[in-house]
Automatic annotation (TrEMBL):
Keywords: NAD, Oxidoreductase. Residues 2-340 form the FAD-binding domain. The keyword Oxidoreductase applies. It is an enzyme of class 1 (oxidoreductase). Signal peptide: none annotated. NCBIfam families: PRK08243.1. The keyword Cytoplasm does not apply. Its EC number is 1.14.13.2. This is p-hydroxybenzoate 3-monooxygenase. It comes from Kineosporia succinea. Pfam families: FAD_binding_3. GO terms for molecular function: 4-hydroxybenzoate 3-monooxygenase activity. The lineage of its organism: Bacteria, Bacillati, Actinomycetota, Actinomycetes, Kineosporiales.
């Protein structure tokens, strides 16, 4: 099989890249290890920055997002006895939208179907070859057990944190940074109407808690738990009690309902640079991971491919400029979001150092009490403009 662009991974980065390339008249083939059902049901992120909404809308993917996405003016920040609202519209004139990654994934899948895009699901043994030449290729075994090969002009590594693309860059040609955290998130999905208008990020001595949502009838919660926690240690009663303890405020009631999904999500920061090696271009989680506090991971993946699509289209026409600057340009946003995610994480997750706790509370009071502090958070949370680094 021959194609201009071989895309590894059919997550949001891979599928949006394929869609944006098609809009520029560039064909691609997408390889994915999982099944389509699995990819579309995987519960992950839920918040789209305004730039991501604008990007998806401009790409013709905004219809259901506009109808079903829930626009929010801001967030609540809380610590015991106090809840403060940060209004992003007042502060910086921007909003965020609650729209699950599952829905982004389905919209992208449908758009690719309509375009007749070849997506090979259920492949295995994906390997990248000859990336230092202008004739790279990818080998794999398809869902029926047959060996396959895609010859391409460029390979886009959109295969997330566990795919082979990142490691296809030789050690001597890459630099990596990593930070692990001593806690994880217990993510909980429940059939209950949200008990809040905007998301609540709560600092608490027992650990951080987040009240998010997916729709008028479905709530999403996260609880800080120690790294390595077994989900079996968290029966539903314990979850509701912990959420009530950590989110509780006099005069406010947490609604409860059947828990439909729960899982433990490890947290880490990771960046690999450059995001290009020869004819391999990395995008999304394949190049960088952020801890989820602040909801940057999905948005960052979308922003990468918004840069990458015109860069690859140009490269294939013999214009190298955007391809040559892709890595540096993308990394400016990556590092901004890496810092913001680390900052939100370390401001809100508690440990056993009483000095740290006082610093966190002081910072929370500053962020909620000073317009400059609130604006800084709002600017990063609601998202930098898509051309932030261009
Ligand atoms: P992915 O979505 O990971 O897509 C990569 C794709 O590549 C996957 O479909 C994978 O199956 C495929 N793949 C892997 N290996 C291969 C291979 N060898 N060959 C072919 N394909 C391969 N972000 C937030 O902002 N908020 C959240 O609440 C949040 N929760 C998360 C929960 C979990 C469990 C995880 C893992 C991530 C979460 N994230 C969250 C991060 C966010 O979901 C990611 O940043 C986003 O999915 C990145 O998109 P991507 O396309 O780069 O990578
Ligand atoms: C969600 C996830 C986040 O990481 C976050 O900061 C806010 C909301 C969510 O899944 O709804």
């Amino acid at each position: 099989m021959r194609t201009p662009v071989a895309i590894i991974g059919a997550g949001p980065a891979g599928l949006l890249l394929s869609h944006l390339l098609a809009g520029r008249g560039v064909e691609s083939v997408v390889l994915e290890t999982r099944t389509r059902d699995y990819v579309e049901a995987r519960i992950r992120a839920g918040i789209l920055e305004q730039s991501s909404v604008d990007l998806l809308t401009a790409a013709g993917l905004g219809e259901r997002l506009r109808a079903e996405g829930d626009r929010h003016r801001g967030i609540h920040l809380q610590w015991p006895g106090e809840r403060h609202h940060l209004d992003f519209v007042d502060l910086i004139g921007r909003t965020v939208t609650v729209y699950g990654q599952t829905e982004v994934q389905k919209d992208l899948g449908r758009a690719r179907d309509e375009a007749g895009q070849p997506i090979l699901y259920g492949v295995r043994d994906v390997a990248l070859h000859d990336l230092g030449t202008d004739r790279p290729y990818v080998t794999f075994v398809d869902a029926d057990g047959h060996e396959g090969r895609v010859d391409a002009d460029v390979v886009a590594g959109c295969d997330g944190s566990f795919g082979p693309s990142r490691a296809a860059v030789p050690d001597a040609a890459r630099q990596t940074w990593e930070r692990t955290y001593p806690y994880s998130w217990l993510g909980v999905l429940a059939d209950v109407a949200p008990s809040t208008d905007d998301l609540i990020y709560a600092w608490h001595p027992d650990g951080f808690a987040l009240h998010s949502m997916r729709s008028a009838r479905v709530s999403r919660f996260y609880l800080q738990v120690p790294a390595g926690t077994d989900v079996a240690a968290w029966p539903d009663d314990r979850i509701w009690q912990a959420l009530d303890d950590r989110l509780g405020l006099s005069g406010w009631t947490l609604g409860t309902g059947p828990v439909t999904e729960k899982s433990v999500l490890p947290m880490r920061s990771f960046v690999q640079q450059p995001m290009r090696h020869g004819r391999l271009f990395l995008a999304g989680d394949a190049a960088h991971i952020v801890p989820p506090t602040g909801a940057k991971g999905l948005n960052l993946a979308l922003a990468d491919v918004a840069l990458l699509a015109p860069a690859l289209a140009g490269l294939l026409r013999g214009e190298n400029r955007l391809a040559d600057t892709y890595s540096d340009t993308a990394l400016r946003r990556v590092w901004r979001c890496t810092h913001f995610s680390w900052w939100m994480t370390t401001m809100l997750h508690t440990g056993d150092d009483p000095f740290d706790a006082q610093l966190q509370l002081s910072q929370l009071r500053w962020v909620t009490g000073s317009e400059a502090g609130a604006r800084g958070l709002a600017e990063n949370y609601a998202g930098l403009p898509i051309d932030f680094a261009e």
